[in-house]
Design brief:
Shape: elongated
CATH superfamily of one domain: Conserved hypothetical protein from pyrococcus furiosus pfu- 392566-001, ParB domain
Radius of gyration: 40 Å
Strand order of the largest sheet: 1-5-3-4-2
Strand content: 5-15%
Structural class: alpha/beta
Distance between the termini: 161 Å
Helix content: 40-55%
Order of helices and strands: HHEEHEEHEHHHHHHHEEEH
Number of strands: 8
Largest sheet: 5 strands, mixed
Amino acid sequence: MAKRKRLIAPDANALQELEEGFAAKPSANPFETKSAVPPIAQVAAEAATLNSMAGVTDRVALARDQGDAARWRDAEQGGLIVQMLAIDAIDQDFIRRDRLVDDEEAMAELEASIAANGLRAPIEVSKTAQGYGLISGFRRLRAFRRLAAQEAQFAEIPAFVRAADAGQEAYVSMVEENEVRANLSHYERGRIAVLAVGQGVFPNVEAAVDALFGTASKAKRSKVRSFAKVHEALGDLLQFPTELTEKAGLALATVLRDGGQGRLRAALAEAALDAKSEWAALQSAVKVATDTPRDKSRGGRPQEITHLPARDLPKGGALSAEVSSDGLRIDLKGRAINADTADQILKIIARHIG
């Protein structure tokens, strides 16, 4: 009879070796799903792996968002972002406008287009202390204001907010847009050059023409300077200035260079019924001037006109003046004045100059 072997319980070291062996031994069953790793440890490991992957994804997304934000700020500072602005917050007289006359038929067409299709080209404005100042888009803003009187949806207008003041850049932008969209008349080109000088934006008409019409040919800039001369000398009396043809304006400029300002102003003293009668009066003065022998000592350069800085009056309004070789012109704006006050001013000037 075989002798039975006595069983002995394993000690702690033996148990430890058994556990390590089971842990290291792969499962013989390929469908075995039980892990030798404790469940809590497995969960912790998986969570750590997922957190690591999420951290990388978040950092990539954050970097992309920061890049987008930087590009957005650059675009906004560069005036490339279209913003919706209340039309009541926009000052349309921020700078002097170059266009004198609006074509009512063209305005009606613009209104109809905006009402049907919206505004395709936003206006340009500059931020001011009171709101926004209009740089370009005068007709579009006007159309929105007329439409807003009928429908509230036009109370706001799409706009680019440019980092510009009422200086050279603003005037150049306005002129460039109008030259592209709706060609200015010869007179309007000369006039805006003179107005920009009067605002202190440019030192003289030569500089204004070169900056505002820098892409134009030399011949075209010469014509603009001639019409600027016409506006300086006759602008306050001309009732139909935009009707002047190129030939007519150049003829007037020639007479003005030869010292015929007084003769032309006298011809314009009586009110004209229409453009035709106005030019007929001027043409008579031009004919007299051309029939008179020219004083060659005067040369061919335009008469130099000095614009004095405008002075704001304590009770409102502004006083400005311009001086030429043969006269002084004083301009009072924004104040109502009667004939008696004007006569007193003339007496004071007469006493002062003797």
